[in-house]
Design brief:
heterodimer; A: about 350 residues; mainly alpha; 11 helices; B: about 110 residues; Arc Repressor Mutant, subunit A; two-stranded antiparallel ribbon; 2 strands
Chain lengths: ~350, ~110
């Protein structure tokens, strides 16, 4: 049990003190109080131990760790940015659901109301939004727990390409919103998002393969590219709807056709509610499948780009805590997507 | 709120003082520290608390590790650590003196 608890400590701390603590425990014995103290110590080492410990312990143990130093500032930026964007997305969703477009769950496109009724459906969508945004925030932290030099580069390369492709998505969306006079005029934005969702991770995977010399790093870079892109594209779509719904309901949205007959032929605020509900669905599609498709597309990119390159850093263990976090996140997203396919939740 | 200086041992100052006091008697490894501290305080530090404090004291360069003896690594007090301990103990002695004096007055009254 105490061996397992020692694994909760940060890697540099373990490299420096684990053997000593294990020797002490062999002599001292292990009581419930000892286990609680070790768990509290792990929390302390992760959250409260001054930054010195992380940096200096790495320096002390550079031989033990094989010099596999990670880009901590870059990784911290990715964690903070993805977590913050997830929170913005959720807050935007909640505001639109309860304040901006309170009648949205009365439209035909809001399928959850068929089971729960309009009022409860609002809370149901909010819970789904919290689940998805929470999963993004959690994987941002959990997916970067123990990455080495190679994976650190891949995460940064993926996030950078994700930002670039997300900005392209924003520009295309803004241009289409300001210039479209019919539903067809808005179509390039959705098409661009679909293309970017597949093409950007290939670029990210190629960049990671070239930077690390490791073919497997394309999966990681593609995943993070998909994470950042999905968050940027979906958040900007919701923001566009919040700001321009009043205008679009009298211009580019007029005459749009929906899968649900209740939304066809409507006008004004009801049309806006239907369109916003439709965009919620597209945002959910991007968020649920973006990282998964990113990982799949990133692999081939790095396969080609890593050929002939010298491998950087140490080969990561097949199932580190980071890869488990990524796999768990992907599983949850895929499960939600399958549920949506089967039940037409949104 | 007062900002903590980088030399402030922080919220684990008590285990820190106990460790420094123990090492003032000579170098010791982790388990020997626990036993020594238990002898002169009656308090048994658990390993998580002990090594959290050791990590902080090492950063402050108030203690330093000596070459390992197998899995055990002894630590010793540095010059800075001795100065810090003396300063801390002087403060505590002042607190003890004032506290005892006031308690005596309170029981006389």
């Amino acid at each position: 049990m105490h061996r397992w608890l020692l694994r909760l400590y940060p890697k540099p701390w373990r490299a420096r003190y684990e053997a000593e603590v294990a020797a002490v425990l062999d002599q001292h014995g292990c009581t419930v109080r000892t286990l609680v103290d070790l768990a509290a110590g792990a929390l302390d080492a992760r959250l409260l131990l001054p930054r010195f410990a992380q940096e200096e312990l790495i320096a002390v143990n550079v031989g033990h760790l094989g010099g596999d130093a990670v880009d901590r500032p870059g990784r911290t930026i990715v964690i903070v940015a993805v977590t913050a964007l997830s929170a913005v997305f959720f807050l935007l969703l909640a505001y639109m659901m309860f304040v901006g477009f309170p009648a949205i769950t009365q439209t035909g496109d809001a399928h959850l109301q068929r089971w729960l009724g309009p009022d409860m459906a609002r809370w149901g969508y909010l819970a789904l939004g919290l689940l998805v945004a929470g999963a993004y925030g959690t994987v941002a932290i959990g997916g970067n727990l123990d990455s080495g030099q190679a994976s650190s580069r891949s995460v940064l390369a993926g996030a950078a390409v994700g930002v670039a492709s997300g900005l392209v998505s924003v520009v295309v969306l803004a241009t289409a919103t300001l210039t479209a006079t019919s539903p067809g005029g808005l179509a390039p934005s959705a098409t661009a998002d679909m293309l970017l969702m597949v093409a950007a991770p290939v670029v990210a995977g190629a960049a990671a393969g070239w930077l690390t010399g490791r073919a497997s790093q394309g999966l990681l870079a593609g995943f993070w590219c998909g994470v950042v892109f999905a968050l940027l594209a979906s958040t900007s779509l919701l923001l566009r709807d919040l700001v321009f719904a009043g205008t679009l309901a009298h211009t580019a949205w007029v005459g749009d056709r929906f899968g649900d007959a209740l939304c066809n032929g409507v006008q004004g605020t009801v049309l806006a509610d239907c369109e916003v509900g439709d965009d919620f669905g597209f945002a959910a599609f991007l968020l649920l499948l973006g990282p998964l498709m990113g990982a799949l597309a990133g692999g081939p990119g790095s396969l080609a780009a890593s050929r002939g390159r010298e491998p950087v850093g140490q080969a990561a263990p097949r199932w580190s805590r980071s890869t488990i976090a990524l796999a768990a996140f992907s599983g949850v997203m895929l499960a939600l997507f399958v549920v949506e396919l089967l039940t037409q939740l949104w | 709120m007062r900002r903590r200086s980088s030399r402030d041992p922080g919220h684990l100052s008590d285990p820190g003082v106990l460790i420094l006091s123990s090492l003032a008697g000579g170098p010791k490894h982790g388990y020997a520290l626990m036993q020594d501290i238990a002898t002169f305080t009656g308090t048994r530090l658990e390993p998580g608390t002990l090594y959290g404090a050791i990590a902080r004291l090492e950063k402050l360069r108030w203690i330093e590790a000596l070459p390992s003896e197998g899995p055990r690594r002894p630590y010793r007090l540095t010059g800075d650590g001795a100065s810090a301990l003396r300063s801390q103990l002087d403060t505590m002695a002042g607190v003890v003196a004032v506290g005892l004096q006031r308690l005596a007055r309170a029981s006389d009254a």
